[in-house]
Amino acid sequence: MNRRFFSIAGFLALSLGHVPLFRRYFPQRIKNGWLLKDEDV
Amino acid sequence: MLFDFAKSPIVSERQYDVCILGAGAAGIALALRLGRAGKRVALCEGGGLDYEDESQEIYAGHTFGDPYFDLDIARLRYFGGSTNHWGGYCRSFEPVDFNRGYLGDDFRWPITHDDILPYLPEACDIVEISSDYQDRLVDEELGLRQVDFKYSPPVRFGEKFQDEIERSKNIELFLNCNFTDLIGADRRVRSVKFRNYADQELELRASAVVFAMGGIDNSRQLLWMERRHGARFFDRDLPIGRYWMEHPHFTIGEALIKSWDQANLYFALTEKMQKSLGILGCGVVVEEQGDSTTKRLIKDLLCVAPGIGAWAADLAGKKLICSYRFHAAWEQAPNRENRVALSDRAVDRFGVPQSELHWRKARIDRETMLASTQQFNAFMLRENLGRLQLRDWVYQGDEYPDDDVLAGYHHMGGTRMSSTPRYGVVDGNCKVFGAENLYVAGSSLYTTAGYNNPTLAIVQFALRLADHLGKVV
Ligand SMILES: Cc1cc2nc3c(=O)[nH]c(=O)nc-3n(C[C@H](O)[C@H](O)[C@H](O)COP(=O)(O)OP(=O)(O)OC[C@H]3O[C@@H](n4cnc5c(N)ncnc54)[C@H](O)[C@@H]3O)c2cc1C
């Protein structure tokens, strides 16, 4: 059971972990550090 | 009255009402108020009137974790303490700082903002600033406000109050007088032992004793007393040294902003917004830079976003745009693992183990900075003020740079206030849990750190403690 639990938890952690902390706050377009609006580019 | 223990042996048979260990901002403010109230005070300072290597070396220690300053340069050990080199930036705690229970039990203070607010005018008087703080709501929806900082000249507490202390009938100032031990039994301190640099000893008797040796040595000396005396003076197993906090200080980016009159002002989020984002306090200052930086940023922006780059270049031609640097200083969450501990490698000249500082920034600390920046950026975009370019380490999620300001030299926590010994070392009256007459003054008391510089509030807390001691001794 533990094995199965860990593999599901691991999968979840990996998939959630792939959204870097930064992106949670800045989902917008970013180029070379500039925080841009879609119409800027 | 002033006695210099470096110059001659001292014998004192007096019984003091209060013996204060350390004459920095906290110790001096406390002594003055007690002295004015007619209490007999011994104010005992480990250093002399000026900087001396032999005193400063006692502050040496070791740091572990995130890059931090050497402990013997992050503070000063002589009369006036670290106010001999502080910058004088002043802003006190805000109501939200006493209201962080939503983040967990270890964020709870045993007192409220109203308990220290009455001491603000006198504290401002001491550091020579006006107490009329004018904050301004900039945008309610985004929770953005402009916050007011005041600047002390900066007052050097030793220089400013030496005269009054020397003339006081009630305060006796002992210089070169290093606290080394407590004498007493059954949770009551009867007297305090000191040594000078020639290893002569002095013992002073007092009804109450206050540790005011700064935000690292309050913890170090209390840990040392616990190691030497176990539960003789206070409860065992208090979290002494733990929950130590700083204010991370970093440049987070640069911006091109069109004709703006808010440069060099400070911004922060409202209480409501901090709570809804689940973060702590963060102050952002937006500092104007020169023409060459404006040109560099416009060139860079033109490469990645020609549309908005052309807009910026056009405004630059009309001298209607400027470049700004974004500095942030923010609150760090109290974390039990961040701590002052006793070194097992080295002792100071009096045989007290040196300090070890274990300090790291946590995820919530980073979130506080990112979420606050997000709100500020949303405001810039909505008002079409300009564009912000973040530093690489911010948006790439890298480690913090080690060539930036790093932190504020603000040493907080370690002997924090709490309503329970589980999370704190002192109660709401600054008395060590389990002790009859042992107290603490200074920012080591802080349960949470706020994002503001600590000294103005240190003075408020010291004045409040004086009022409490005035009633019990
Ligand atoms: C470079 C720098 C810039 C700063 N700028 C600001 C600022 O702009 N705004 C702000 O609010 N704060 C600032 N600070 C922080 C500010 O200096 C401290 O918050 C303040 O001085 C702390 O007061 P304190 O009385 O608790 O401790 P301290 O001022 O450190 O005083 C402690 C005293 O205890 C004495 N002592 C230590 N051990 C013993 C012992 N064993 N026996 C007897 N005496 C002992 C020391 O000699 C010292 O005099 C700055 C600090 C630094 C280093």
Description:
The complex is a heterodimer of chains A (41) and B (473). Chain A is of the alpha+beta class. Chain A is built from two helices and two strands. Chain A has helices at 2-17, 21-25, and strands spanning 29-31, 34-36. Chain A has a two-stranded antiparallel sheet. In chain A, a hairpin with a 2-residue loop joins β1 (29-31) and β2. Mean pLDDT of chain A is 66; it is low at 1-18. With 473 residues, chain B is of the alpha/beta class. Chain B contains twelve helices and 21 strands. Chain B has helices spanning 25-36, 53-56, 113-116, 120-126, 157-167, 214-229, 271-277, 291-304, 306-317, 363-382, 392-395, 455-472, and strands spanning 2-4, 15-21, 41-44, 61-65, 89-90, 136-139, 144-147, 150-151, 171-175, 178-185, 188-195, 201-211, 248-258, 266-269, 282-288, 321-330, 339-347, 353-359, 386-390, 406-407, 438-440. In chain B, β17 and β18 form a beta hairpin. Chain B is elongated, with a radius of gyration of 24 Å. The two termini of chain B are 21 Å apart. The model of chain B has no long low-confidence stretch (mean pLDDT 96). Chains A and B meet through α2 and β2 of A and α8, α9, α10, β19 and α11 of B. The structure holds flavin-adenine dinucleotide (FAD). Residues 21-27, 44-47, 74-75, 77-78, 81-83, 85-90, 178-179, 212-215, 217, 409-410, 442-443, 453-455, 458 of chain B line the site of flavin-adenine dinucleotide (FAD). Chain B: Belongs to the GMC oxidoreductase family.
Q: How would a crystallographer describe the biggest sheet of chain B?
A: 8 strands, mixed
Task: Give the helix/strand class of chain B.
Answer: alpha/beta
Gyration radius from CA atoms of chain B, angstroms: 24 Å
Report how far apart the termini of chain A are: 51 Å
Number of domains of chain B: 2
Provide the β-strand percentage band of chain B: 25-35%
Backbone shape of chain B:
elongated
